[in-house]
Design goal:
- The chain has a single domain (about 5-290), classed as Thiamin diphosphate (ThDP)-binding fold, Pyr/PP domains (Rossmann fold), CATH 3.40.50.970.
- By secondary structure, it is of the alpha/beta class.
- Helix 1 packs antiparallel against helix 2 (about 25-45), helix 1 (about 5-20) crosses helix 3 (about 90-100) and helix 5 runs parallel beside helix 6.
- It contains eleven helices and seven strands.
Length: about 290
């Protein structure tokens, strides 16, 4: 698989989802497409999926007493594990799984309505989702615990956790980072999508989180800052993370308006977190998709 082609496919599929549903988290997919593409094409060591290309209907939340399908099944048995923390990036994960052949494209339509597993806010039964977390940093704590267990049991592989920059406003994030550092968990790495926005507007205007790199380093992490829309920069940073003796955070500065022209105007007007298309935007988006 070619990471550039996969990134383009993620944007296209997310745009089609947004048109079909007249709403969605399109900017998140557009800003992080290169990250997901690089992870799946060049970084993650995953075994084949153990889940069907078309997911079953939702029955109940999986637990140790029931045999309902888990989102983790689409990622296979490892040795690596990809944990998506901000649940509103669920659409991006689904589109990525389609682009790499672990999910049927038809599922984006047939299984995204009532009773389907492709929920707009993803949960642990949704394809490719390891833990229900919202955007509250709980997935990072779970991932640190699993990394500790792997270290104790000498289980190979790395855990890669995708965070949104908004999660750096959460105290639980820093508790988890401190624990991972104290245990020298070199088998866990974080990729942070620093797109500068959250539901209420610009991060810098609401609760500034800079200097991000300095903060990670102060908590004992190796920190690498890159252009998060540059495929080669992401690949090189992930390779460095694999070879580090410390847990590593890759700080990806991304542009959530990339791919479709109307998104930049949304960014300028602080209306980019969730896209509810106007009729003009809908027609523009359809035209741009046709030109791809």
């Amino acid at each position: 698989m070619n990471s550039g082609s996969v990134a383009s496919e993620i944007r296209l599929l997310a745009a089609e989802w947004t048109i079909r549903a007249n709403g969605g988290y399109l900017a998140q997919a557009c800003g992080s497409a290169e990250i997901f593409a690089t992870l799946y094409c060049d970084v993650l060591d995953l075994s084949p999926s153990t889940a069907p290309l078309i997911p079953p209907k939702f029955e109940s939340v999986p637990n140790s007493f029931r045999n309902e399908i888990r989102g983790e099944s689409w990622l296979g048995e490892g040795p690596d594990l990809f944990v998506l923390s901000p649940a509103h990036y669920g659409t991006t994960q689904y589109c990525a799984l389609v682009a790499i052949g672990r999910l049927d494209k038809k599922a984006l339509t047939s299984e995204s309505g009532d009773g389907g597993l492709l929920e707009l806010i993803a949960a642990e039964h949704s394809p490719g989702i390891v833990v229900s977390s919202g955007s509250l940093a709980t997935a990072l704590g779970v991932s640190v615990g699993r990394a500790m267990a792997r270290k104790i049991k000498n289980i190979p592989g790395n855990i890669w956790v995708f965070l949104s920059d908004g999660e750096l406003q959460e105290g639980a994030t820093w508790e988890s980072l401190q624990l991972a550092s104290s245990q020298r968990l070199k088998n866990i790495n974080i990729i942070v999508d620093v797109n500068g926005m959250q539901v209420d507007g610009r991060m810098a205007q609401l609760m500034p989180i800079e200097p991000i790199v300095d903060k990670f380093e102060a908590f004992g992490w190796n920190a690498i800052e890159i252009d998060g829309n540059n495929l080669e920069a992401i690949r090189i940073a992930c390779l460095a993370a694999k070879n580090s003796n410390l847990p590593t955070a890759i700080i990806c500065r991304t542009k959530p308006w990339l791919g479709f022209s109307f998104l930049k105007n949304r960014w300028d007007n602080n209306k980019l977190h969730f896209i509810r298309l106007t009729e003009d935007e809908r027609q523009d988006l359809i035209s741009e998709i046709k030109s791809l």
